[in-house]
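Protocol step 4 of 5: obtain the predicted structure for the target chain.
Materials: sequence only (see below). No template structures provided, no constraints applied. The aim of this step is simply to have a reference model before the mutagenesis design in step 5. Sequence pasted as it appears in the construct record:
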Amino acid sequence: MQLGALDIEPGTDRLAAIIPDNVTPDAVSAALGDGVTVSPAQPRDNGSVWLLGLSAIRIGSISIAPQGTAAPPRALRLTDSSAFGTGHHPTTALCIEAIEATLAGGLPENILDVGTGSGVLALSALMLGLPRAVGLDIDAKALEVAAEHARLNNLADRLRLVLGGPDAVEGIWSLVVANILAAPLMEMAPILVRRVGSRGRLILSGIPWSLESEVRLTYERLGMRHVRSEIRAGWTVLLLQASW
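Step 4 output (structure tokens):
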């Protein structure tokens, strides 16, 4: 830990740790003794989360667990893939919590998940009781992962996956969520707002706290009303409601 390890996994006869690149193997050997071996670490969530291995976590009432590990009944099972959405990034947790809080006020008819990645947000919404969901992504490989996760959790019949952004579908949704990045959120704001139904809710994340006001004002100018914001570990989730 004093060397700045990002994750540590103790064992009976070995210790594994993710060490920053600026700490040399010689420095680790000097601190811990001989017998240090080095291998590349694998980042997750687009390089923003560094873990030796995925573990089960709980976000609100949703349990998320890697495939093949011990977990509570009805846990959302995910494979260890390259698609964003392991559940370990703060924005994923913020969005799931915002979805669950929104559902507490009444069950929307449907959800549109823009930039679905692993499908974790859409699948969490289905497990919370929404009857159906649509997931969009511009990455075909991410959609393959999301489809596998839907099959793994017996939710494939309630999740429709579409290649593209919010202009790739027609219609409106009572709940729209987009966990991407601040710049594309502002760029796609006009079309994204048109996907929100009357009095519908819009959940946005992937926003650094320093850009919260800029993103919020972009959507307020288009008729969305700010309900609340929450910040965690430098990231923001915005909850907005249609004024029409």
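Step 4 remarks: The chain has seven helices and 14 strands. Residues 45 and 84 are 4 Å apart (CA to CA).
Proceed to step 5.
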